Amino acid sequence: MATEKTWYPGHIEKAKRVIQENLKAVQVVVEMADARIPYSGRAYEWKSLFHNKKTVILLSKADLADPGQTDRWISFYEKAGMVAFAMNLKGNPGSIRKGFVSKLTDIAREDRFQRYMIVGSPNVGKSTLVNVLLGKKKVRVGRTPGLTRGIQWVNVTDQLMLMDTPGILYRHLFSKHVRHKLLLAGCIKASESEAEEALEYAFLWLKERYPNAYRTITGQSAEGPFEYEELLRLVGLRRGYLQKENRVDRSKVVDFLLASFQNGTFGALTYETPDSLDIASDSG
Ligand SMILES: Nc1nc2c(ncn2[C@@H]2O[C@H](COP(=O)(O)OP(=O)(O)O)[C@@H](O)[C@H]2O)c(=O)[nH]1
Ligand SMILES: [Mg+2]
After folding, report:
1. Which CATH number applies to 4-164?
2. Pocket test for ligand 1, best of 64, 70, 128, 140 (most atoms within 8 A of CB)
3. pLDDT tens digits, 176-222
4. Closest ligand to residue 141's CA
5. Hey, whose CA ends up nearest to atom 7 of ligand 1?
6. At the topology level of CATH, where does 176-279 sit?
């Protein structure tokens, strides 16, 4: 696959191995997924990696996701018998700490020493969470997917320890739609052509699910025909991304649009809903 190198750096395989080796040292695995892609964000072997462990789903970046859909996803996971909750990790540190500890202590209550492993795809917010819980900047946080290289243990309190881990993904992300969603959430990098496919996917999704956002971004009505090329041109003209002879600078438009989706500039949007899910094609 042409893009494999960009989204499967060699250290992911090692990360999975180290995670498995350390699983016995924790009582609970906290699986983090971006609230904008609560299912596709778990594009790794969660069944085989964590099947014997208590697993909690933490939907991060809740501030960037559609709150109604976040509630639906929490019910989706709760119906599957899991503890699930959502957080804006850029919010008030005090309430994040309180919320996290109250969710988790219920589960590990029996144990005097609580040890949690924080896992998830690259860029989902694992280090951010650990930093907030620590209350001091001790773990590196960055925009570049894959910044956390090694496993690190941190003591939150005398009784509570966390393990921050590097991001994991399937080696082969067979589903194009899953790759598109991971890209829109900033969990993987991709070639420009794949970025364009993801944008086309995003526009179609918005047209159907978020007509107001679609209209604001493209200047087009959601009832009208869908012309991807025309949308790029219109966004380029509106942003003034022009080259010689007033031709639209396509790669600038693509970069702008992708970054805007990733950063949540276009508003609180969720890229998949429990009812939209094609679960059969989503495993890798
Ligand atoms: N808006 C928003 N940004 C977040 C949230 N959590 C993390 N981020 C940002 O996402 C990026 C990746 O975070 P990081 O903790 O390094 O991800 P990691 O690769 O999973 O360790 C950083 O720019 C964070 O500031 C959140 O809840 N909301
Ligand atoms: Mg990290």
Report:
1. 3.40.50.300
2. 128
3. 999 999 999 999 999 999 999 999 999 999 999 999 999 999 999 99
4. 1
5. 125
6. Conserved Hypothetical Protein Ylqf; Chain: A; domain 2 (1.10.1580)
Alpha helices in the chain (DSSP H): 4-7, 11-22, 46-50, 67-79, 93-108, 126-134, 176-184, 192-209, 211-218, 228-239, 250-263
- 44: Cβ contacts below 8 Å, ≥ 6 apart: 16, 121, 168, 169, 170
Ligand 1 — pocket residues by CB below 6 A?
Answer: 60-61, 63-64, 88-90, 120, 122-128, 141-143, 147-148, 167
pLDDT in tens, 92-125: 999 999 999 888 877 766 677 889 999 999 999 9
Of 164, 126, 168, the closest CA to residue 9 belongs to 168
Q: Where in the chain is the domain with CATH 3.40.50.300?
A: 4-164
CATH 1.10.1580.10 placement within the chain: 176-279
Q: Whose CA is nearest to atom 9 of ligand 1?
A: 125
Distance 154 CA to ligand 2 centre (A): 13
